[in-house]
């Protein structure tokens, strides 16, 4: 099984999804795609993925008010990769459940152990968020290029902004072709060190410091001291997490106002 994110978090690496899907088909390997960052923008099942997962806590909810997740399974076909001998232990379920076999496999195994029924109120809040998902994504995707352009032009030379929409970014061409010029809400700032990153964060007036992404509000977080605090240095380096890295999740506020908030925090 191959498990990938559509967008590296927080590295902002953009994988070659068509190539990965092609290889998984060639070697009859199951492909699970975490599409949390790019709902609606990318449709991995239509591209050839086997299972797509989302953290509904993020963009789908949009308010940091409900915990949840969802797994979406493709229907099995007559000559499906799951009929391969290496999946022999699953054949009794495959032969019995046919097109719905993947759902049954998940219920019998992972969901049996971790649960599959979200709480009612959290589900209600997520459903409310879904009603405005397309509008919120459109706002974020139009705001990000404006914000990163301003920051690239006006940030002090010791702070670097990164996003695939920038022409200087090595994933810019893939961003425009495979990702349709939209790859979620994440932007990163690279400061000189942890201390300078904290100084910047503490001077922000409008941006909220918290660990979520995909919120209506613009969020920012120092990665090495929070989510990746327990990772060793080699693993942090492999994941693109440095001592000065700040992850930003763009919200639906006015992009000029958000850019100015970061600029004042850098220059004061």
From TrEMBL:
GO molecular function: cysteine synthase activity; O-acetylhomoserine aminocarboxypropyltransferase activity; pyridoxal phosphate binding
The encoding gene: ahs
Record carries keyword Transferase: yes
CC per GO annotation: cytoplasm
Domain of life: Bacteria
SUPFAM superfamilies, per the entry: PLP-dependent transferases
The keyword ATP-binding is assigned to this record: no
Xref: Pfam families: Cys_Met_Meta_PP (PF01053)
Alphabetic keyword roster: Pyridoxal phosphate, Transferase
Needed co-factor(s): pyridoxal 5'-phosphate
GO biological process, one term: transsulfuration
Family: Belongs to the trans-sulfuration enzymes family.
Listed name of the protein: O-acetylhomoserine sulfhydrylase/aminocarboxypropyltransferase
């Amino acid at each position: 099984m191959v498990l990938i994110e559509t967008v590296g978090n927080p590295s902002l690496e953009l994988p070659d999804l068509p190539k990965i899907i092609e290889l998984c088909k060639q070697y009859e390997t199951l492909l699970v795609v975490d599409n949390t960052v790019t709902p609606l923008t990318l449709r991995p099942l239509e591209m050839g993925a086997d299972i797509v997962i989302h953290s509904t806590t993020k963009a789908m909810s949009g308010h940091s008010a409900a915990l949840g997740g969802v797994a979406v399974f493709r229907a099995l076909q007559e000559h499906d990769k799951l009929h391969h001998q290496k999946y022999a232990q699953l054949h009794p379920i495959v032969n019995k459940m046919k097109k719905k076999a993947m759902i049954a496999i998940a219920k019998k195994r992972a969901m049996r152990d971790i649960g599959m029924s979200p709480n009612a109120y959290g589900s209600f809040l997520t459903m409310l968020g879904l009603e405005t998902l397309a509008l919120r994504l459109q706002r974020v995707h139009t705001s990000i290029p404006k914000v990163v352009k301003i920051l690239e032009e006006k940030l002090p030379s010791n702070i670097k902004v990164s996003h695939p929409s920038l022409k200087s970014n090595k994933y810019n061409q893939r961003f425009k072709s495979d990702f349709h010029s939209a790859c979620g809400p994440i932007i990163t700032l690279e400061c000189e060190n942890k201390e300078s990153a904290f100084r910047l964060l503490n001077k922000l007036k409008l941006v909220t410091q918290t660990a979520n992404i995909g919120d209506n509000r613009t969020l920012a977080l120092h990665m090495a001291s929070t989510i990746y605090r327990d990772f060793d240095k080699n693993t942090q380096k492999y994941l693109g997490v440095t001592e000065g890295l700040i992850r930003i999740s763009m919200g639906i506020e006015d992009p000029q106002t958000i850019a100015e908030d970061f600029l004042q925090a850098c220059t004061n």
